[in-house]
Amino acid sequence: MSVRVPAKVNLQLSVGPLRDDGYHDLVSVFHAVSLFDELSAEPNEELAVRVEGASAEEVPADGDNLAARAARLLAERIGVHPGVLLRIRKAIPVAGGMAGGSADAAAALVACDRLWNAGLEPGELAELGAAIGSDVPFALLGATAVGLGRGERLSPVPVKGRFHWVFALAEGGLSTPAVYAECDRLRAAHGEWIGAPQVSERLTTALANGDAKELGSALANDLQPAAIMLRPSLRRTLTASRDLGALGALVSGSGPTCAFLAESDAHALDLAAALSDAGVARSIARAYGPVPGATVL
Ligand code: ATP
């Protein structure tokens, strides 16, 4: 049983004030792109995880792996022994702001649901996923969607055509809680008043019209100043991409991966080569979106 699952980039990430429970109300426009992890599930005596790929050492290969937690949760829900070997082939950058761990959790839910003939409805899998992490329901759904609440209450967003992206992968990750904490600190230091976040109509119109130029100028991420503060080299990466003709550029989620929008596939190729020559990233990846969520191969 093999499942392919995409990374996400947030086209809009608006962060509301800190709530009493320690979370923030978010408006997140998720967009699934063609950078995929692959997960396979096979019967085994115990729950076990193997991770392969360039960044395998950065990922826990035990019960802490988000895919293992997902498998355990599903097994508890349907009352079976979680006897499964999960093999994960990582291509999504680790701690890169592209929700790779959540993607693997979503893939494990889909794979184990099939392996154990559980037959849960998509809504039931999404509910289990939300208990593991706010980005898991989107990794199940894919395409492009607005996420409200902590990002887990999803509604699909219509998109015309395909958008072409270049991603600059950074050396080392950024911790998502640390970036949120830095965002709160910066806001407090500037005495900023923060209202309830709203979906950007300019952004959703650009998506519906397939208008890459408009989309490029509507991209927005409230976590970007915090990510730059914690990783000042990101400023140079973002500036270089604008100088090289990207239609838009932003930090992906909590970073440090940066996403650049290109006009076309050919433009993405040129942009990727130019960014690579500029030496502003550890590595460069090209991808397009939207793509479907976790899919059985
Ligand atoms: P997000 O965009 O949701 O904030 P991220 O992309 O920044 O997440 P992840 O790659 O999901 O970050 O991983 C964050 C941490 O979770 C890693 O440092 C790693 O230790 C842990 N982790 C647990 N399981 C996995 C997994 N299957 N893949 C990647 N990281 C995992």
Instruction: Report the uncertain regions.
Output: none
Mean pLDDT comes to 95
CATH architecture assignment name of the largest domain: 2-Layer Sandwich
Helix and strand string, N-terminal first? EEEHEHHHEEEHHHEHHEEHEE
Q: Kindly name the structural category.
A: alpha+beta
CATH fold annotation of the largest domain:
Ribosomal Protein S5, domain 2
Share of helix, binned: 25-40%
User: In one word, what is the shape?
Assistant: globular
For this entry, what is the oligomeric state of its chains? single chain
Tell me the distance between the termini.
Answer: 8 Å
Q: What is the compact description of this entry?
A:
The protein is an alpha+beta fold and 297 residues long. It has helices at 66-78, 100-115, 122-132, 136-141, 176-189, 201-209, 212-218, 224-230, 233-243, 265-278; strands at residues 2-18, 24-43, 48-52, 84-89, 144-148, 153-156, 163-169, 220-221, 248-251, 258-262, 283-289, 295-296.
